[in-house]
Amino acid sequence: MKDLMGMMKAAQEMKGRMEEFQNKVAEMTVEGRSGGGLVVVTLNGKGEMKGIKIDPGLVSDDVSVLEDLILAAHNDAKGKAEYEMNAKMQEMTAGLPLPPGMKFPF
Fold first, then answer.
1. What are the structural domains, with CATH classification, of the chain?
2. Whole-angstrom distance, CA of residue 8 vs CA of residue 86
């Protein structure tokens, strides 16, 4: 019975950690850059684009270059956001008795 109580307490602690994690993710912003900083995209922790900055020198007749740079900056920001979320999740689940290879959340 003592093990069950310990599991219940651990579950409550995990719930609190998950809520804290979700709040941190919601507040997080990351910037992705392409073209040496000519295009900068800002995403929130949910991957929603919150801002974009384009160097005025890029606006010309060849829109395809600008489109490619925007996509590259967005993908850069998204990769950074995923990295940060994974790092925070590992930090949060440190010390939990999870089996090897098991990812959290399930």
1. 2-93 (3.30.1310.10)
2. 25
